[in-house]
Amino acid sequence: MKKLFLAAFAVFAFASVNAQDSDNGGGQTSEGKWLIEANTGNAMLGTTGIYFASIDGNSSYNIGLDGGYFIMDDLAIKAGLGYGGVSPDEGDNVSSFSYRLGAKYYVKSMIPVTVDLTGASGDGAENGAGETPLWLGIGAGYAWFVADNVSIEPGLRYNLSLNEDFTDEGVFQFNVGFALHF
After folding, report:
1. CATH 3.30.70.260 assigned to 2-181
2. How far apart, in Å, do the first and last CA atoms of the chain sit?
3. Domain range list for the chain
4. What value, to the nearest 5°, has the Cα angle with vertex 135 and ends 168 and 154?
5. Do 29 and 70 touch, CB atoms closer than 8 A?
6. What pTM was computed for the model?
């Protein structure tokens, strides 16, 4: 585990030293540009993020990506897909398919604000009553452009459940996004 943290710190330090001038002129978020991003995920949600967790012999995982197109300066329409599952210590593996549709607006080309709808389907997404999740997510963060077309975007997000039969609780999360801008 120490090696993982050391490697992450080394990557962070390298990116800091090689970061471009913070005045990006909005070029990365200009109309007609594309966005591809991977985010850290949350095992409680149907997600298009990336995560892995193992507790008491039960492993859960997800892999997914989001993509977007800037329909005007600083405003992207986004869609995402994810696939995940649970491998219990005993019993059958279950899996789920997740989707996300939404928009992302960059205030002053560096503060991303998102609104999206996230859902999931499949055996791994259902609760005990056979219901699947549907969430309205809102979030904000900071886009740190470490190169002309690469940003690291830490942020906070609140997910409001739209399916009270699945859960009536919201989920607050911290996540880190890694985005490519073309």
Report:
1. no
2. 34
3. 2-181
4. 115
5. yes
6. 0.78
